[in-house]
Amino acid sequence: MIEAKGLTKRYGKTLAVDDLSFTVTPGKVTGFLGPNGAGKSTTMRMVLGLDNPTGGQVSIGGKRYRELHHPLRTVGALLDAKWVHPNRSARAHLSWMAKSNKIPMRRVDESLDIVGLTSVANKRAGGFSLGMSQRLGIASALLGDPEVLLFDEPVNGLDPEGILWIRRFMQRLAEEGRTVFVSSHLLSEMALTATELVVIGRGKLISQGSTDDFVAKATDSTVKVRSPQLDKLRTALASASADVADADDGLIVSGLDSAKIGEIAMQQSVVLHELSPQRGSLEEAFMQITGDSVQYHADIEAEARKALESSSR
């Protein structure tokens, strides 16, 4: 489990993360969403002890990262797939990690096999494509067989087959009871992968809960109806105070659920060919909820780091 309490980070005068509190529980894939510059990368770096909070704290299984006895056996992370030395092979890189962290060497080949890199295990990482580098980064995260996993943009550079693979893989990790925390700008993919969401904007928590609830609260609920008797049905629905709009091959109804629409159709002896609730998309919900939080079009975290570097000169 990951738990943040009042997490705050300043870079000079810039507030990147502002009194942020959230919980990521085991057994679920939790998506971490927010506009550019919302503080996602800074938050993940603080979870992993790479940045120190200005205030508050974040723990993994009740301990701060630096208090973990065997960090890579507890938490694995993919933040930057290109940090591998370009002259090292995938196997050499993982072997170095295993030796330096007292991880059984058998995990090297197991991790390479899991991510599909066995056939290129002895090739230089500098010659890897972006997708292959991502797979090596995921293998690095899995090396210690950790209970907690953090992925920042895990599908970056992957082809459609690779995207499907990482989606199913993260879901399988969650089914095994692990804590999976993933940040991505591909909202359509997050809608298929994450069952829970933590959404932030300007460093503050905007929403935490299930993906379904997030979408339902932020988008209008409508029902699509098709019938050979549309005029009769339209009149009956309007009389029941429903909002009715014409669609290409039917009606879009809001203000009534599908059960009530079905009852009205039956009462009016109207034949229905389709009666299907229409769910809004995660993209629509995200834009609706976070619209006011898109204050900066540049990356506030990058600007904050520049401010810190300037102040230290």
List the defining traits of the structure above.
313 residues, alpha/beta, Rossmann fold, Alpha-Beta Plaits, 2 domains, 12 helices, elongated, transport, nucleotide-binding, ABC-2 type transport system ATP-binding protein, ATP-binding
Proportion of residues in helical segments? 25-40%
Which fold name fills CATH's third level, the topology of the largest domain? Rossmann fold
H/I helix tally: 12
What is the CATH top level name of the largest domain?
Answer: Alpha Beta
For CATH, the homologous superfamily of the largest domain is named as P-loop containing nucleotide triphosphate hydrolases
Radius of gyration: 24 Å
- Summed up, the domain count is 2
User: How much β-strand is present in the residues?
Assistant: 25-35%
Spans of at least 5 consecutive residues whose pLDDT stays below 50 are 296-300
Distance between the termini: 39 Å
Major sheet: arrangement of strands? 5-6-7-3-8-9
* Largest sheet: number of strands, sense, barrel closure: 6 strands, mixed
CATH architecture of the largest domain: 3-Layer(aba) Sandwich
| Overall pLDDT score | 90
Order of helices and strands: EEEHEHEHHHEHEHEEHEHEEHEHH
Global morphology: elongated
Instruction: Give the beta-strand count.
Output: 13
Find the structural class using helix and strand composition: alpha/beta
